[in-house]
Each structure stands twice: as structure tokens, then as C-alpha cells.
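Below is how a single chain appears once it has passed through the pipeline. First comes the sequence as given, then the structure the pipeline wrote out for it. We keep one example in the README because the format questions we get most often are answered faster by looking than by reading.
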Amino acid sequence: MESKEEAGGPDAPGLCCASFNQDTTSLAVGNKTGYRLFSVTSVDKLDCVYESAESPDVYIVERLFSSSLVVVVSQATPRRMNVYHFKKGTEICNYSYSNNILSVRLNRQRLVVCLEESVYIHNIKDMKLLKTLLSTPPNPSGLCALSINHSNSYLAYPGSATIGEIIVYDANNLNTVTMIPAHDSPVAAVTFNASGTRLASASERGTVIRVFSIPEGHRLLEFRRGMKRYVNISSLSFSPDSQFLCASSNTETVHIFKLRATPPPPQETSPTWSAYVGKVFSAASSYLPAQVSDMMNQDRAFATVRLHVFGQRNVCALATIQKLPRLLVASSDGQLCVYNLDPHEGGECVLAKRHRLFGSDKERGALEEPQPDTAAPAQSCQSYAATVATSGATPSSATLTGYSEDGGAMKGEIIPEHEFAAGPVCLDDENEFPPVSIQNK
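Resulting structure:
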């Protein structure tokens, strides 16, 4: 996500980037002053988990689930990726690449770095570079998706700069699985479901969203977002149970589609008028041109959201918060909106809460409804510099050399010596998994 001055003037606290973690329990945002991590496990409260002002102009920040591992890339050093243990205030490692980093994706097995014409795959447990995919088709937006399921650790990226081909790559076994001819025009958005068994995509036209089986690549479903105009789809996201798929764009509407189950075989019943009409349309579609036939078989949105602003970059996600399905939308004007989704009736989603993501606690609360007196106070954010000051650690100049077959990725200055003595770098949460270990070679 790139912030725009039109969102509120050059001094507005707009976002340079925003990303939900893999299970949509946390939101990471970056702007000119640094980055913040928020917990999104409650509708009424938006707790700031961590705040750093040590890396200005952050345009990529990705957190690994609810662990302490966070990846940061800033405009000051756009070719360098920094990996931090933010609770300890220490740097796990950093890598420099041959060109600007455009996107980073994480799961419990792999860390993927996407440049315009190459992709780097690291083993997240020791950050070792495992594979470099060189000479990939031009990908100026850094479009790629990584399945969060570490058993089905599939990576998807564009297979062409002129048509909508998608390459599906097995990031565990390091081999290409399939190529999906997804669209006629170049791909603009792509995402996996939680199990890594479904892939959704949209093209630059933004009118049709398709869902494919993984790893086979068979087309399963089609959804029509609209017919009147082309739009720029900026975000696609499955619900945790893979029952719904949401899509946001540069328009004022977010669409939520329901992934229908395979219908049971029809039973022999007395003919009805609706059944007769259905048979007529089904028979007629076989005589129509393919494009018209496909349009007749496409599903429309099950639910929609009308945003308070439009024309801005945003990222959307479907989550279960306090046992109810919600839609989350973080926009480049620095706001997070939480909507209620009716999983049975659909229709227009209701705004439940609006939060401001930057500014002081008082300013961030300006968009929220009044809270009861019994509400717990929001957790204060500790700066990165303060965390380092209290850790008792003094960084050293210890470095590890780059790997010989790095394909353009250079290992930079690494973690302080006291971390080597302590053994594996543990994350102190989620049962200390993954145990990121730095090997002194």
C-alpha cells in the first residue's frame, strides 16, 4: 500500500504500508515516522503492541503470526531487509539484494523476498538462502502470495507481464508445481486460503475474480465484481474457514463473495416453473459464445461494504473476532474500519468501529465511540530505542559472510555476540516457534 498526498495533504498521517499477519490477529502499519504493530482481537479496542521510530519511511513491515519476528524495509535502504526480534529489541539478521525489495511474505517455514525480476526464498529457521528464482517476468508491483500453511507452502507469482498467467511454486520442495492461465490481462491480485488448497486471483481489469484448486490449478469458481468499469483491485482475502472471499479496490465498495459448496445431485421431483427456466438457461448457454456463457455462470457479491472514502489504497481481511465474522479494512488515510458480516443473509455490512492508526492515544481515540468506564486502558507502546536500552545488550560488529550461491543476496551485519552465546534466537511466544537460529560459520 502506498500512501497518497491526496488522502489528506502532505502532512496527513497517511500509511506507507499496511498488512495483516497470517491469521489476521495483528495489523502492521508503516509511515514516515516508523511502524506500529496492533492487536486486532477486539472490536472496541485497538491495542498497540509495539512502536518503533528507529526506521523512518517504512514501506514494508510484516509480522510472523503473533510472534516477535518482524521484517522491515525502509525507503532509506530499499535494497536491505531487516529482521528483528522486536520484544528483545535485537536484530536477528539483515540481507541486501541487487535491486529494491518490492514485497516480503512469511510463513513458519519460508521467508520470500520479491524483486522486480527475481524471487529469493529463505529458510525462516536460520535465514539461510535456499533458492533464487532469477529472470522472472517483470513484476513492478512485487505481486506474490505465500500460503500460510507450512505443509502446503506454495508460492504464487505472475508468469507473464502481458497476460494473466500465474506460476505456482512449491517453496518447501523448491520446484515448480503448475502454471495457471488465470486471466486474459495481467494479474493484479492473488491470495491463498488458509489451508493452501485454493488460490484466488484478479486481473488488471478487475471485473472477474477466479478461484482455482491447488496444486492442480483447476478453475473452481468465478465471481463478477462489476461490469460497468475497470477497477484496480488492491486486496483479496479468504475467510479463515474458506467460506468467503473479499475484494477491495480503488472504488468505494468492498465485495464479499460466498464460496458455494458443490451442490448435491438433483432428486427426481415434479417439475416446477423455476426448474424449467433453469434448464432452458443451462441448455441455451451451450449455444452462446464462451464469454457470454461464462458471464451467465458467474456469481455476484454476497455482501458489500460502502467505504467512507474512495480512491485510496487499502487492504482488507476477513476475520473471526469475538466469535463473530468481521471484515477489516485498513486504508491509506490511516484508519482501520471494522464491519459486521451476516454469514447467512449477507447484504450491506454494518460499520462496528473505526480506529485511527497513528497519532497520540487521544488522537487515535477521536474516531472511536465512547467506551464504558470499566474498559481496560490501552497498552502503552514502547519504542524500539527504549527496548534496546533496557535489554542490557551491547551490539558488536560480529558479521557472518554471505553464502557463495546467493544469487545477489548479501548477508549483512548480524546479531550481537550475546545472542550467539545464548544459542537459538527464541521468540518467547507461540511456544518459541520457529526457533530462529543463527549459525556462526
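The helical segments are 273-285, 290-296, 361-364, 384-391, 417-421.

See the next section for the split statistics.
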